[in-house]
Specification:
The protein is built from 12 helices and 5 strands. By secondary structure, it is α/β, with parallel strands linked by helices. Strands 1-3-2-4-5 form a 5-stranded mixed sheet, sandwiched between helices. β2 (75-80), α2 (85-101) and β3 (106-111) form a beta-alpha-beta unit. The longest helix has 18 residues, at 285-302.
Length: 321
């Protein structure tokens, strides 16, 4: 994984309940959720403060349980590598913060070298990468080492956003009970989820296209298709190389769209939208249409009701007309 360009961590006001990847389907894969106060097997890990029951090592098998618990408390996902000193530093800060909150947060630690498919699901191209999950939806937080005070500020804002969306439970004794069992996914959505877990993004896209052929108004399938297509485009991407090529070729449509994909996957949504809108204003013909269609796909990834999408739609109209 490469080291990303230095960018400010997302402002707290950018948090919402959609991100680069729709993880809601993972809830249907969960077995019985762990009891409150004992989130999953494999808890703790090297350096975990006081073996906190709210700090767990995540595998592909236990990850669905965390997604299910995100209906109850915010789940912070720490995508780390023990070989990265910056990653270890961020992990230690997160462990301390989660321990202090005593069941109001859950920290899921993902070793990206052991479980690369989970890292791919979060479009992680560098470590440390930290995200959250609320109600089954990812919220990008940051993708580089940041100071402890900034991490604490982001976690505080995450808790506020969670409370505003009805996620304000606790996992300690006497807290909220187990979440209700989720209904199974529709068959084609389940097929898409299974393909994502296997790293088969083309297969997932095919399943979503079948779902749309049967039900053209299936908004979840439309969003899922845009998301897995983004995942496929970024699979194995070298972020530094893509950014260098885009900087050297400002009118290269493919280069600019590749960086827009990176920005959306990393939570830099406005940067991505602004880049594509500016490109559309400069190019014409097939290049303009290609850029326009990609922007519409990115709107689906972020969520069509997101205020940043509304703002970008207005900017797109100005660029086109």
């Amino acid at each position: 994984m490469s080291t990303p360009n230095h960018r400010p961590a997302p402002a707290a006001s950018t948090m919402n309940l959609r991100g680069a990847v729709d993880l809601s389907g993972l809830k249907a894969r969960a077995t019985a959720p762990p009891a409150a106060g004992a989130p999953a097997p494999g808890q703790g890990g090297a350096g975990a403060p006081a073996a906190s029951p709210y700090i767990v090592e995540v595998s592909e098998q236990t990850f669905p349980q965390l997604v299910q618990l995100s209906e109850q408390v915010p789940v912070i996902i720490d995508l780390y590598s023990a070989r990265s000193p910056e990653s270890v530093q961020v992990s230690n800060v997160l462990k301390s913060i989660v321990t202090e909150h005593d069941g109001k947060l859950l920290l899921g630690r993902v070793d990206v070298e052991a479980f690369p498919q989970i890292a791919q699901a979060f479009q992680a191209v560098a470590v440390p990468t930290v995200a959250a999950v609320l109600k089954g939806q990812p919220v990008p937080l940051f993708d580089r080492a940041v100071p402890e005070e900034q991490i604490r500020a982001l976690v505080a804002e995450l808790l506020q956003v969670a409370a505003a969306n009805g996620v304000a439970g606790t996992l300690n004794e006497g807290g909220a009970g187990e979440p209700a069992e989720e209904a199974p996914l529709p068959p084609l959505h389940q097929e898409a989820y299974d393909a994502i877990v296997a790293g088969d993004y083309d297969g997932a896209a095919a399943a979503y296209r079948k779902a749309l052929a049967e039900q053209p108004a299936d908004a979840e399938a439309k969003a899922g298709l845009a998301q897995v297509e983004l995942m496929a485009r970024l699979k194995g991407a070298d972020a530094e190389k893509l950014r260098t090529e885009a900087a050297a070729n400002p009118d290269d449509v493919d280069a600019q769209l590749a960086v827009a994909d990176l920005d959306v996957s990393g939570g830099h949504v406005e940067d991505a939208f602004n880049r594509v809108v500016r490109l559309i204003a400069r190019v014409f013909g097939d290049d303009r249409e290609k850029a326009r269609l990609r922007l519409l796909d990115l709107f689906e990834v972020v969520g069509t009701t997101d205020p940043r999408v509304t703002k970008a739609r207005s900017a797109l109209a100005r660029a086109l007309f």
